[in-house]
Amino acid sequence: MPLSIPPIWDPHIMADEVRRVAKKGCHAVPSPRTRTSSAGPHLRDHWDPFFQACEEEGTVICLHIVRAPPNRDAPGAPLDVMIRSRR
Questions:
Q1: Residues β-bridged to residue 62
Q2: Each residue of 27-83: pLDDT tens digit?
Q3: Whole-prediction pTM value?
Q4: How many domains does the chain have?
Q5: CB contact at 8 A, 64 and 31
Q6: How far are the Cα atoms of 1, 41, 47, 60, 86 from residue 70, in angstroms, in the given order?
Q7: Could you list the residue range(s) of the whole structural domain that residue 47 is in?
Q8: CB–CB of 18/6 below 8 Å?
């Protein structure tokens, strides 16, 4: 399955890339990073153009869940961020 890696610094450019690669048969992309894992904006803040393009093109957003400790102090963090397995 082809998986494109669109530019993550701008949701509009990212949306354009989703549409471009969909015309070539690529319908999978990694999720943009969250503010807790990089300096970029949080998923809830401004990624609507990207999500809309994925919905329009039938593109799957592939999530990679890492074991890094979540930022439980992030403003508006959902409950599932606070829940993690203990080893």
A1: 30
A2: 999 876 554 444 455 555 678 899 999 999 999 998 866 655 555 556 666 666 556
A3: 0.63
A4: 1
A5: yes
A6: 30, 15, 20, 24, 13
A7: 11-82
A8: yes
